[in-house]
Amino acid sequence: MIAVDRESPETLQKQIRRQIAIGIVNRLYALNRPLPSIRQLSRELGVSVTTVSLAYDWLRLDGFVEVRKGAGFFVNPAVLPAAGEALDPELTGGVDAPEEELDYTAFFRGRSFNLPRVVKPADCLARYRYPFVCGVIDPSLFPIDHWRECVRDSMNRFELENWATDYSSVDDEMLVEQIIQRVLAKRGIVARPDQVLVTVGGQQARHLALRLLVSAGETLGVEDPGYRDVVNMARIEGIAVERLPIDGAGLMLSEDIDRCRCLFVTPSHQFPTTVTMPPERKLALLERTHCNRQFVIEDDYEADISFNRTPPAALKSLDGWGNVVYTGSLSQSLLPGLRIGYLVAHSEFIREARALRHHFVRHPAVNNQKSVALFMQRGYFDRFVAGITAVYQERCATMHRALERHFPGASAPPEYGGGSIWLRLPEGADAGVLAERVEAEGVYFETGGFTFSDERRNRNHIRLGYSAIDQSLIAEGIDKIAAALADAGAA
Questions:
Q1: Do the strands 262-265 and 295-299 form a parallel or antiparallel pair, or are they unpaired?
Q2: DSSP state letter for 299
Q3: How many helices and strands (H and E) does the chain possess?
Q4: Is the separation of the CB atoms in 309 and 291 below 8 Å?
Q5: Res. 236: pLDDT tops 60
């Protein structure tokens, strides 16, 4: 990133100083790694040690770098502007800002994809002492030695040759086989390999299903409260959204359903309330959508984390007509970062979904597919899921007892399982304000208002995950939430 021009009227020291400064303000250097050493730059640029030393001295005096004893020169974080802020002309000296820049804020006004959504902090497990975060696995529970074994074995010469090919028309055969045997069979779903598509996480599975089943101008029915990302996907695609009420048994079979081309539902483990739809309502829903010639996208998130020895049957397992498209992922039962999801549907639907996937990402990472396939085939997946399910069940019970002390009757442990509890705060409480109050205490949770059609009227709900927090800290964290309620507008 640094080059010197010996024909330039500018001195070599100033050239080096200017280029490093430009790299710093443009965030080309990592904050936590040392800048090139004086001797390294001297050698690479063919200039004297004194020249580079003087350049660094001026950069330090100008505030661009700081010296850490025994470690070298580092970027001074104070010199970096916050997003959207202009650079300080006093500090940047010879670093010229462009005279005119394209205004992307105006360009995306009215057409932005930056819609309201939950974005979990990437460093939530390190930043918060009480991470009530949902959909994240406690890394201390993960069998790293078994995973290393599978990753190593997925990198033999034969498998590396597969990395060099185009996998857009196929998926890893072993992975598809394992998903059918170890995941779908437990949900009562019988599927052939040509009825399964591997996706880049459950999110892509939902998007593919939505794009294939519903056209712009048609209507998608989504539970209220429900999964906001699917609402956002529909609106981006020009699809109308009908919010459908739920009760203690999940989606209510109201007349609102009949106006929809397709329904997006979470029947076994409703998002976010965690209630489970009873078998008779599932059958009634299937009968109604069959008569209406409607499609159903079933999101069976956290399907593997069941507290019951015999979990409720998936809606897809009861589907005799073929109008249910089943989506799921291994994010909550393995690791979210692996991005392994799946679609299960009629073989002709999967053929179209595979073609559509090709245009977006071609295919999921081949090495991840093989590593996960080996992890499942060798029995490590089943053992891991059984282990975390037992841990989650204990953590869930601990959390519910703590919640009952402070908020009696305001929550219920999930009937199915999974990794979170849905809590209704006292009337008048603002979950957003509460989240800000407890963050200083090291507490993180998700507010629930975004899941409702009218967020303004439903600000007193929160989601409390127990999958990533140590059991010994759960009650203490709930105590802190309860103590901060008075400052959050609670009556």
A1: parallel
A2: E
A3: 17, 15
A4: no
A5: yes
**Location of structure tokens 């690479």:** 44
pLDDT tens-digit map of 267-294? 999 999 999 999 999 999 999 999 999 9
Q: Hunting for tokens 């002309």 — which residue is that? A: 89
What secondary structure letter does DSSP report for 411? B
> Could you tell me the CA-to-CA distances from 172 to 159, 243, 340, 371, 384 in Å, in that order?
11, 37, 12, 10, 22
CA distance 147 to 368: 11
Q: Rounded to whole angstroms, how far apart are CA atoms 452 and 224?
A: 5
Residue with tokens 């390190």: 126
Residues paired with residue 431 on neighbouring β-strands, in sequence order: none
Based on its alpha-carbon atoms, the radius of gyration of the chain, rounded to whole angstroms, reads 27
E strand or H helix at 461:
strand 461-465
Residue 329, strand partner residues = 341
Kindly report the backbone phi and psi dihedral angles of residue 45, in degrees, each rounded to the nearest multiple of 5, phi listed first: -95, -10
What are 114's two structure tokens? 């930056």
Distance, in Å, from the CA atom of 92 to the CA atom of 20, rounded to the nearest integer, reads 11
User: Any idea which residue has 């009337």 for tokens?
Assistant: 427
Helices 228-236, 201-213: crossing angle, 10 deg rounding? 50
Q: Where are the beta strands (DSSP E) in 413-459?
A: 420-424, 443-444, 446-447
Question: Which tens digits make up the pLDDT trace of 144-200?
Answer: 999 999 999 988 777 777 777 778 889 999 999 999 999 999 999 999 999 999 999
Q: Angle formed by the axes of helices 144-153 and 380-406, to 10°? A: 140
Contact between 234 and 227 under an 8 Å Cβ cutoff? The reply is no
Outline where 164-309 has alpha helix (H).
173-178, 201-213, 228-236, 279-291
418 closest CA partner among 382, 392, 440, 436: 392
Residue 182 backbone dihedrals phi, psi, to 5 degrees: -105, -15
Residue with the two structure tokens 């609670």 = 490
Angle at 84 between CA 83 and CA 85, to 5 degrees: 95
Q: Which amino acid is at 152?
A: R
Distance of alpha carbon 316 from alpha carbon 326, whole angstroms = 6
Under DSSP, the state recorded for 484 is T
Among candidates 32, 114, 113, which has minimal Cα distance to 66? 32
Are the beta carbons of 34 and 71 closer than 8 angstroms? Answer: yes
**What pLDDT score was predicted for residue 157?**
73
| DSSP run (H or E) holding 263 | strand 262-265
